[in-house]
Amino acid sequence: MSLFGKVLAASLVMMVAVSAQADMKMERKNIPELKLSIEIPQAFTPMPDDMAKIKYPSENRPQVIYSDERGKASLGVSNGRHALPADKLDVAKDATLKMLSNYKPQAESVTVDGHKAWLITFRSQAADTDILNMLLVTSENDKAVQAAFNMTKDLVGQYQEAARASLLSIKFDK
Hints:
This protein is an alpha+beta fold. Helix content is 29%, strand content 40%. It has one domain: Mog1/PsbP, alpha/beta/alpha sandwich (Protein Transport Mog1p, Chain A). It has helices spanning 3-22, 49-55, 89-99, 156-168, and strands at residues 26-31, 36-41, 45-46, 64-67, 73-83, 106-112, 115-125, 130-140, 143-152, 171-172. The strands form two sheets. It has a seven-stranded antiparallel β-sheet with strand order 3-4-5-9-8-7-6, with helices on both faces. α1 packs across α4 (156-168). The chain is globular. The chain starts with a helix and ends with a strand.
């Protein structure tokens, strides 16, 4: 293939990826029990309990979980389960990075609704595919707020930008 052909092919791939992400319709979900709202892909619905128990076998699974129809992309949110004073957020981030060190996590400092937060990204392995995990950790009223968006590797092009936008869209009830 000529250089022009390679550039053309790469451009088409990029346009498809950008248009797939640009077409992702988001909607704000108010989650009163967690005292927050978040934008999620419109196609996401609450994950059925039986699927949630398989995907998150620990009883410490997220309090609220939304997913695509097959559960290959999902968003889980928890608020207030654990104490986390805002001044201990960096300690919590460091502990999380250490715990996930085998997955080569990357941490990025971000702001969510005026709160300092950490966006931790890493890849893990499921039985049949790789998973891209994006975990947001912040503190609200000295309590930990965690939101995790994960997707199978075949859905990364479709959901990665929407996942980031979703996690950064958290608004706390005043």
